[in-house]
Amino acid sequence: MQKPNSLYNAFIFEQFQFNQTNGEILLSYRFESGPRFDERFVIPPSEHKLSDDEKKALDRALFSLHLAAGISYYKAYCPSEMQVDSGQLTKDEAVFWTQLYTLGLGEFFYRNDLDFTDLIQFPVSDVAPQSFQTKGEGALVPIGGGKDSLVTIEALRAADHPLVIFNVGEQKALEAVIDAVDSRRIKVERRIDPALFALNTEPDVYNGHIPVTAIINCLAVVTAIVHGKRDIVFSNERSANVGNVQMNGIEVNHQYSKSLEFERDFQAYVAASISPSLRVFSLLRPFSELMIVQKFVETGKYFDVVTSCNTSFRLVKEKPTGRWCGECPKCAFVFPLFAAFLPKADVMGIFGVNVFENQTLLPVYEALVGKTPVKPFECVGEPEEVIVSLAMAHERGEFEDAVIMKWFVAEVLPGVKDLEAMRARVFAPTKEHVVPKDYLSVIGL
Predict the structure, then answer these.
(1) CA quadruple 65, 71, 76, 80: dihedral positive or negative?
(2) Percentages helix, strand, coil for the chain, rounded to the nearest 5?
(3) H or E segment at 191?
(4) Is the pTM of this model over 0.90?
(5) How far is CA 127 from CA 89, 94, 130, 291, 416, in A?
(6) Nearest to 60 by CA among 127, 160, 159
(7) Bridge partners of 245?
(8) Angle between helices 329-339 and 383-396 (to 10 degrees)
(9) Which residues contact 36 (CB under 8 A, 6 or more apart)?
(10) Average pLDDT per 10 consecutive residues for the chain, totaling 445 residues
(11) DSSP for 98-138?
């Protein structure tokens, strides 16, 4: 493990601009004496008329988006100095951004074998925190095409709660889901600077995972202000709180920006530095992934469009022809969740392939059930969830001839001391969440 060997001394957040006429956001960055980048977003127009305070809150939200989106470019060289020319940070704000970059890039540092100890420090200015009241109503619901956001949407609809769905970009798999949802939608366009993709092919450039959900959080706040929404309702589950591996005494979590830790920190940041009127939270935080799939199955909808396979949403690599690749850790994780509740024919109809027949996934399943020290770097659940879902699929008796099920029955199930106690833990909602009280009834709590 070594410190990043950066070609440049500083990463500079140059400026951000917002064109209220066409909705274009321009975010500019550069390395000191090095390459510069422009990232663009386009938010569709809104009939909501911004008050003076809302304009100020929007400026603060745009500043936060500028800082969040910079992480895609910073990681190319990882210099030790952060120079923020587009605004000033209080001590608490600098701590927030330092932690987001450090923990949000945890997997990136781990995979690149980089020592990130005291690497990132955002600058502090002698300024007071500023936030402003906004006047929104209703919910903005980010949607990614998977079961989780669909459960949130159906729960809000059942409670007659006004909502509009929100997504970034356009992917074929997601468009099919959005068509099926049939709801008012706000689609934001995003254009990452092509120079970054070209840079990533160079041998002296670092590449890897970033906390993209943190960027989506900041973008959603901007969009909520522009379109007059009060609540931003995400669909992250409790297993997102659990990391993958320890490094330098810190838990590396692939899903850090989906975790309760980040959610709480971001709530505090928004309240103190943007607007105390906005509420950003995950409606599904009390539930395990297995509970969420149960709720999804109970809707009886979206089986022919749902996909949680991230290979369908790759930016530059070749995409699979189907909705599920059937070969990645995410497919390996989600398949038994559905198999726990649905007949084999329905499961096969969703996935198009029997994932349990893929012998090459055996090492992945060993990691998923906790037999290896490193949890797969994907959005997957805890070992107990996987064990219980495989046991439930085994009880249904339709996958007994598959290689993964044979392995589970022979090698894993005999070592489970109290399956019923484990099942009870998996299906018990946690009290560790920040869902507002007026939303608890929406999810039956």
Answers:
(1) positive
(2) 45, 15, 40
(3) strand 185-191
(4) yes
(5) 7, 12, 9, 45, 56
(6) 127
(7) 252
(8) 50
(9) 14, 28, 29, 30
(10) 91 97 97 97 95 98 98 97 98 98 97 94 96 95 93 97 94 89 95 96 94 98 98 97 90 96 98 98 98 96 90 53 86 97 96 96 96 92 97 97 98 96 97 96 95
(11) HHHHHHHTHHHHHHTTB--TTT------S-----------S
For 415, residues 6+ apart whose C-beta sits below 8 A from its C-beta are none
Q: Smallest Cα–Cα separation from 12: which of 40, 33, 39?
A: 33
CA dihedral of 363, 366, 370, 374, whole degrees rounded to 10? 0
DSSP state of 283: T
C-alpha span between 358 and 293 (Å, rounded)? 22
Rounded CA separation 31/15 (Å): 13
Which residues, other chains included, contact 423 with Cβ-Cβ below 8 Å and sequence gap of 6+?
Answer: 388, 391
Residue at token pair 């600058």: 123
Phi, psi of 188 (to 5 degrees): -100, 135
Residue 253 tokens, joined: 């979590």
Question: Reduced to 3 states, what is the DSSP secondary structure of residue 168?
Answer: strand
* Cβ-defined contacts of 155-160 (< 8 Å, 24+): 155/283, 155/295, 155/442, 155/443, 156/233, 156/283, 156/442, 158/442, 159/441, 159/442
Q: Is the dihedral of CA 200, 206, 212, 218 positive or negative?
A: negative
- Return the closest-CA partner of residue 172 out of 329, 328, 320, 333: 320
Contacts 24+ apart (CB under 8 A), 379-384: 379/240, 379/254, 379/255, 379/258, 379/308, 379/310, 379/330, 380/239, 380/329, 380/330, 380/333, 381/237, 381/239, 381/288, 381/289, 381/290, 381/333, 382/239, 382/242, 382/288, 384/422, 384/425, 384/426
Q: How many CA atoms lie within 13 A of 102 on its CB side?
A: 20
d(CA 422, CA 380) in angstroms, rounded, equals 18
Q: Note whether 107 and 377 are within 8 A (CB).
A: yes
Nearest to 35 by CA among 53, 15, 12: 12
Q: CA 342: distance to chain centroid?
A: 27
Matching residue, tokens 């070749």: 318
Burial of 290 (0-12, 13-18, 19+ CB in 10 A): buried
For the chain, give me the number of helices (H) and strands (E)?
17, 11
